[in-house]
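Input (structure):
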């Protein structure tokens, strides 16, 4: 069950990142921090999720820069 929830969360994150903006990433990072503080996720899970979100944000920024005609 935990694996299914994890996959669902990743799919939601991906959809939000595709449709959203930096505010969505900040919200997801804040949610992760709260879950970590509550003991719902461990240090490793937090680090992996943060890395994934930040990498996606960086990739999105790179794509937007390329599309701006620079």
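Output (sequence):
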């Amino acid at each position: 069950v935990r694996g299914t929830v994890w996959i669902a969360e990743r799919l939601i994150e991906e959809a939000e990142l595709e449709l959203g903006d930096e505010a969505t990433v900040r919200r997801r990072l804040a949610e992760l921090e709260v879950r970590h503080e509550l003991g719902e996720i461990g240090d490793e899970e937090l680090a992996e999720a943060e890395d994934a979100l930040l990498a996606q944000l960086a990739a999105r920024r790179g794509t937007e820069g390329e599309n701006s005609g620079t």
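Notes: The radius of gyration is 13 Å. Residues 5 and 11 are 10 Å apart (CA to CA).
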